[in-house]
């Protein structure tokens, strides 16, 4: 079953087209990584899917067009975590993560016990329980990044759009976060679309990879199909060796020529 379908999505800013004619189906419970060099249009494509930049073409979530959804309904089906979120600094971590429940609250806007439990669960899963009462402004970069993810998890949307979710995280927290996202899609059937710069991680977690270059789709397929040394040289100008680890997963290793 397709959870998310993009058909001919073209998007940009003030008359400048930045992403052109992207067509891709993302099956329910799968993980699509959007990769590509800086400025390729990865974040813009995610924003277009989230309905945050003007776009032409079609974005369907299930059978519904995103363009036809109101903000509240959209936030119930699509959880978007931006790369550099502007955070309401005065809020505590708990109050910030509670914002993820906003699209689910009743007419009086009061959170219930189950909303608070969901928030506590999201904080625990992201190793933030000890920071629950700290103001956001006092968090380190990696802690803030995890708080953003906790808010998106609390939102309980079926499709997660994660822009560079591991930015600023150390390798342990980056792995823990990606494992958590992987677990969500396996346990709950959550569908994931994320941009990723780390190509070894892009080989390990997603099922499919879409390579953007200059706003165009340069390649799409499984990580093994897309992540070849030739292609990475052509589109990133990078010298890399693509190795196979003992467990069969790919490692994209930078090489000095
Ligand atoms: N708000 C904006 N207004 C105008 N141009 C923008 C805006 N945001 C991004 N751009 C431009 O759109 C192009 C694509 O940017 P985008 O952030 O989508 O790329 P990216 O692939 O995510 O890059 P990176 O890997 O550096 O994060 C860039 O040339 C960028 O300068």
TrEMBL record:
GO molecular function per UniProt: ATP binding; ATP hydrolysis activity
Taxonomic placement: Bacteria, Bacillati, Actinomycetota, Actinomycetes, Pseudonocardiales
UniProt protein name: Iron complex transport system ATP-binding protein
SMART domains xref list: AAA
SUPFAM superfamilies documented for this protein: P-loop containing nucleoside triphosphate hydrolases
Occurrences of domain ABC transporter (ranges): 4-239
Keyword annotations of the record: ATP-binding, Nucleotide-binding, Transport
The keyword Transport belongs to this UniProt entry's keyword annotation: yes
Gene3D superfamilies according to UniProt: P-loop containing nucleotide triphosphate hydrolases (3.40.50.300)
Origin species: Kutzneria buriramensis
